Amino acid sequence: MRWNKNSQPSIRTVFARFIINYLILLIILTGIGGYVYNKSLQFAKEKAIESGISKLDKSKDLLTTRLQEVESLVNQLSMNTLIQSFMNVKKPYNGEDYYKIKEIADHLSTSKFNNRFVKETFLYLKNDTLITSSMSTANASLVYGKLLKQGDLDYLTWQKNLLGKYQYATFWPEANLSLNNDSRSVITYVQSVPIGAVNTYKGAIAVLIDSNEVHKLLSTVIPDESGWSYVADRNGTIISELNHSNEPSIGLQIPEEARGYAERTINGTKMIMMYTTSDSSGWIYVAAVPYDFVVQSVEYIKRMYIYTIIVTIVVGVLIAIAFSYTSSKPIHNLIRSRDQLRKDLNEQFDLVKATFLERLLRGGFTKEKEIETVRSYIGLDLVGNQYIAVMISIEGYGTEDISPGLLERLDLAKVVIHNTFKDMIAYPTKYFNIDNEKIVFIIAYDEKEGEGIRRDIEKTVETVTNLLTQSHGINIRVGVGNPCSNLINIRNSFDEAMQVLDSLIGKSSAGLAFYKEIQLGQIEYYFPLDVETRLMNLVKAGDETEVKSLLEELYGRNTVNISLQSGMLTQLSYELRGTAVKLKKALAAHEKEESNQVDTLLEEIVKQQTLPSLFESAGQLFLLLCSIVNRQQGKQKKALKDKMMSYVSQHFKEDDLSLYRISSDLGMTEKYFSHVFKELIGDSFTQFLEKTRMDCAVGLLKDDKVSVNDIARLSGYANPNTFYKAFKRYFGVSPTTYRQQL
């Protein structure tokens, strides 16, 4: 048969078809665009303002968190037994008190590392003793005005402000402060100590907060060239201010709403003044932005509308031409898109794996099941009944400036280490970069192979050391933590490996060491912030098994290679008590009897004199809190279950009852509602609704006077045919047959 080219559409025909279809679509889009354009003008303004308020909310939340950290830090310092005992010293510069002063200065210095907002922390006592992290100690009257001065205040005024009356969580507005010839603006947080000693306080702890860090948060809301922003306390006193204009900031009379905006004309300039209020502190956050800056997006929408019409026409013509001449191009694009998608997915999986390992090593998981779910999803081969962390530090580069040559040598060393471990360790091993100089391997193995894994590690480290030393002149230190029986505790092995590395610093024989074979001589108790957070999350989840396991882990970490003095034991007991107090406050609703039990255990925990009795008391306390959580959750689940069943009972006869409707009315997403409904009732929503309707239909079938069509309608089915199919599927017979069998 001869090919007839007339049977094929011509280029002009194809072009015309696409153009005609496109013009129809373009006319529709133009009409919709005109309508949307008119609505967008008002919407854009509201959206821009809401975006600004949201930024202000984020700045508020972050600053509130930082200030709460400062308050928590000061509370911890005020409870420090060393500081409490030193406040009663009458002659602080005699004998062994110098050592106490140095220890206090060291405690104060930790605040600067834990919170970048903190510039300095100092303790000032009524005996004129001033202790800071940078100057250790000095007579305040001698150094004030020379090494330390706040604004234009003379010494007596400064002393009166600090010690003239009892201060409780007081913030002083930002002011210039000179410390060691370094002048900057700071916000001062003052707390008299001891806390609660209104008439007998001994001094005050002051934290100097860097105003520049606060300004960075405020700068996210206002433009660089104009506007201003400030933070004021509940009394209207401005604590910190950022002003990009030549005009002074104007206080805003805040309406009753805690969040919103107001339009004001200031010196002939129309301004949008956005504000939000902190629920915890009552502080007011205000940002004033020129009106023109806020609504400039309206002009942008107008231009975009015109450009979109033009671009749409041009793109439509190009698409018509492209489709008529290159029919195979979509296939090529599809293949190319598939390959790129595969590449992107692989890169994403690498990122997910790295994130998983980092979270695992930092103790970011609370349940073994959660770890197993993520591990299986990303295909991470770490199967065994024992796990161990091996940390390697590449020596000799800590003091060098970062340079391409240095990074190249570090990368070379890491490649050699990684490849050697991969070739010589016969067990599932995962590699993770800690920083430029440190890497860690997680090794999974069977418990019966414990000696074998040790030999493999020793042999591998020996091989790596020889390769790096002889060929590249690079030395390494290797620390191996204790094995653990599950992945959730690998963070302990990781911490132990890190401690081993620290213990090897400066030793001539530094090479490989195992945690269980070294004497760390640690006297500080072990209860880091991430462990406290994990403990609180487990209690809030009511997971008694995991709480017991974590407390046992804490007990072990405070007995192995640690010799706690009585002062440290007391401090640990107060730390545990403080965690329990936070949990008690979080669990607002509980019975009076339970509250009394908690209070009794809170008092008992600080009376313990030995570590075993302390953790026994802590176990009773935290397990009691778990039981309170579980009781509350049980009540909540029962109330929710009753609410769900009552809703279905009241509305099942309505044919438009759906998963979307019931979840919306109960304030849940469809996915979450389905999960909770199935968990509480045992059937899916669809199954339960059908069962309820079928039960109703069976009851109506017993009355011969009611037709099947009416039964369908009264049972919640708008279409009788749908009812017939559902009934037969549920009972195996039709409604008519079922009625005849009654």
Task: Give a structural overview.
This protein is α+β, with helices and mostly antiparallel strands. It is built from 24 helices and 17 strands. The strands form 3 sheets. A 7-stranded antiparallel β-sheet has the order 3-2-1-7-6-5-4, with helices on both faces. A 5-stranded antiparallel β-sheet has the order 9-8-12-11-10. A hairpin with a 3-residue loop joins β1 (118-125) and β2.
Question: Which spans of ≥5 residues are poorly predicted at pLDDT below 50?
Answer: 1-11, 327-336
Structural class: alpha+beta
Gross geometry: globular
State the separation between the terminal residues, measured CA to CA.
Answer: 71 Å
Main sheet: strands, sense, barrel? 7 strands, antiparallel
Content of β-strand: 15-25%
Helix content class: 55-70%
Work out the radius of gyration: 35 Å
Mean pLDDT: 79
The beta-strand count equals 17
Count of alpha and pi helical runs: 24
Q: What's the arrangement of strands in the largest beta sheet?
A: 3-2-1-7-6-5-4
Keywords:
single chain; 742 residues; alpha+beta; seven-stranded antiparallel sheet; five-stranded antiparallel sheet; 24 helices; 17 strands; 15% strand; globular; transmembrane helix; DNA-binding; membrane; transcription; Tscrpt_reg_AraC-type_HTH
